[in-house]
Amino acid sequence: MSDTDRMRFPAAELEDFIARVLVTFGLPQSDAANCGRLMIASDTAGFDTHGIFRLSQYVKRLRAGGINVTPTITTVTESPATAVVDGDNAMGHLVVEYATKLAIGKASEAGCAWVGARRSNHAGAAAVYVAMAAETGMIALYGTNGSANHMAPWGSTDLLLGTNPIAAAIPPADGPPIVMDIATTVSSFGKVRTAAQRGDDLPPDWMIGRDGKPITDSSRIKDGVLNPIGGHKGYALSLIVGILAATLSGAQMGVDVEGMGDDEYQRTAVNNGHFIIVVDPARFGDAAAFGARVAEVAETMRDATPMPGVDSVRVPGDGRAASIADATENGVPVHAALLDNLNNLADDLGITPLT
Pick from 36, 115, 159, 209: CA 20 to 30 A from residue 97's CA? Predict the structure, then answer.
């Protein structure tokens, strides 16, 4: 994507735009501001398919009454190291931040914590939440079931599984954390939707049709099935993540999932499920020594000899850290097609556009 295809905005300006949009639909100012902050955290970190790009999708559900704009997020059951959170059909960002903070607090007391959440919605990039734990010196592992089914069991074309991402963050002694955030499909559906908005072709390994042949025409994404990473292994990983995030927490899974992006389901609660595990490394020995060893391992990876055509070897999270630094200095990039979409939304709502 060239610089001529995008404009740069201060993160605070984009956060404010999101908040103003959400307030028009009845979200309290504080909730709207928090959603704006968490959404732009995805963009700032380079996950531009999971940040402000999703705003129009959320607005469809808000218009239809499919999201509770004045929720009461509660802890419905808990022990010293576990809890289940009921999101009351709130914006998913609010639910997962609540669950993450609860898990961090429990891990600081018990050494480790597992918090599940149900009756939630799409929450943006998973990396945002595991990074919160890493910033406190904790290790975190997160998973969620997809808010729509775009993947089939291996050997089938029946849409029964989501992209079901899994994320982890591990803090080194110094510098940004190691952060992994991957879908269990070759591409997240957000990237597919982004390509469709821009009119770009899809790589041939992203999607197949019901005939098993690749789909590269991004206008046909509703006809496609996302390919799992690693073939049958990606299917297995998606299934396990979905069961732990949704089934264990009492959220929807498999045939019960109703597509967040499908027009006929905009009024229906998605009932997303999530889990986050937080571990205090100090319970396994000296935390500072652990952080130093993590930093050493990371540097060993970076020092590996690059293959021909590869500039350097990176560690998961290096791209995120570079994107945050770039966005902080130069502003958050917004593609021209997305900017048009957002400003059309602003005109429709009668609020100041991003120009």
Answer: 159
